[in-house]
Amino acid sequence: MSDTVKYQLDEEHLPKHWYNINADLPVPLDPVLHPGTQQPITADELAVIFPRAVIEQEMSTEREIAIPEPVREVYRQWRPSPLFRARRLEKALNTPAKIYYKYEGVSPAGSHKPNTAIPQAFYNKIEGVKRIATETGAGQWGSSLALAGSFFGLEIVVYMVKVSFNQKPYRRAFMETFGAQCIASPSTTTASGRAILAEHPDSTGSLGIAISEAVEVAAQRDDTKYALGSVLNHVLLHQTVTGIEAMEQMAMAGAHPDMIIGCTGGGSNFAGLAFPYLGKQLREGGNIEFIAVEPSACPTLTKGLFAYDFGDTAHLTPLCKMFTLGSSFVPPGFHAGGLRYHGMAPQVSHLAKLGYIAPRSYNQLECFAAGLQFAKAEGIIPAPEANHAVRAAIEEAEKCRESGEAKTILFMLSGHGNFDMQAYTDYLGGKLKDLVYAESEVAMALAGLPSVG
Ligand SMILES: *Cc1c(COP(=O)(O)O)cnc(C)c1O
């Protein structure tokens, strides 16, 4: 067998449907609540910030939802994305394990995020929306929505978490190239931003704060809606295009995964790969292990509480039942900016709570070490977020070396790290440290959880 083993589907195999795991949940999700009344939120209430088609998908229990043709047309530029067998990495690890990875770095923004940015922009466009406000952590989501906005002729305003705004000037340039406006958050352009700055003038920002700013802007103007790049059901739905392709590619390889691994910030790339498999397992049985990997410095699934919480710091968003570290928690400024979120997708949280998903956490240094090992063997520099999945895959392959078991590992390489070279420069220069989250701060944030009757 040659060392480059790639499973590439023809264009005709581009999926025609997304997969909705709500159809197969053994216990339905808890309802999303209105932040004021604490009653289940209605479609009309959500319509202030989201287009109707997106709200329908958010609430749907249909198993398959058709991908609109104009969305497939754009997907076709880089989809189906490749699935690789990591032969050189297997050899370097001297493991009997078979390691496969689905690679989403082939999108124009370099990550899985355009899979949902494109349909969200499309649905806004056909409903007459002119402008979308959003937040971005490391910049991948802002880049993806900027790209989608330019395809569909929408104005895009991006609130970028300040620590990343300063660490990643090229991400800002990327967004501006596509005509988007990029503002460091917290900013003075919104009441939520000004309130944070009054209390913490040196705030490095957080996704929770940036979401407040974007939601505030969307709620104020009729021609403006809000878009979220992770967490919500419709986002996870759009990402299942990756898992549906991967199932076909693994079948081409004659392989069946024993475990499926993804990094989790809000849960979307992990769910995209895992849910089509997990849904099948819920319907038909099976014993694939689903492993969600998060940073030890923002350990939502492993150290958080499963409770109703706000999605943002200013408490403008609806309440979701999810694993959370508390909406006022500001994680330390580690380099995997896309994983610095206090909450976790309700669907991922629910399935973890029920025991179908096994979460674990790693520190950033061991993840960068794994990323370098992967890059040297496979020739792709992973995004710092994706390094968490790489770390778990390598650890599992090393366990196989000890036990002699030839397990099949499938993981999601959610993006490349070509815009994250400052992080690699810092790592190579010995400047990165393992950051510890402040337990007292989490305790304080959790004490402030809304009491839902
Ligand atoms: C945004 C991002 C993540 C984290 O978000 P999820 O919704 O958990 O997928 C992970 N990897 C990359 C490359 C990202 O851009």
**N/C terminus separation:** 60 Å
What is the class of the domain at 5-14 and 68-110 and 234-447 in the CATH system? Answer: Alpha Beta
- How much beta, percentage-wise? 15-25%
Q: What percent of the residues sit in helical stretches (DSSP H or I)?
A: 40-55%
**Poorly predicted runs:** none
Hetero groups = pyridoxal-5'-phosphate
Report the major sheet: 7 strands, mixed
User: Rg from C-alpha positions?
Assistant: 20 Å
**Strands of the largest sheet, in order across it?**
1-4-5-15-10-11-14
Put simply, the count of helices is 18
Coarse shape: globular
CATH architect. name of the domain at 5-14 and 68-110 and 234-447: 3-Layer(aba) Sandwich
CATH topology of the domain at 5-14 and 68-110 and 234-447: Rossmann fold
Q: How much is the average pLDDT?
A: 96
By helix and strand content, what is the structural category?
A: alpha/beta
Care to count the β-strands? 15
Family: Belongs to the TrpB family.
Function: The beta subunit is responsible for the synthesis of L-tryptophan from indole and L-serine.
EC number: 4.2.1.20
Enzyme class: lyase
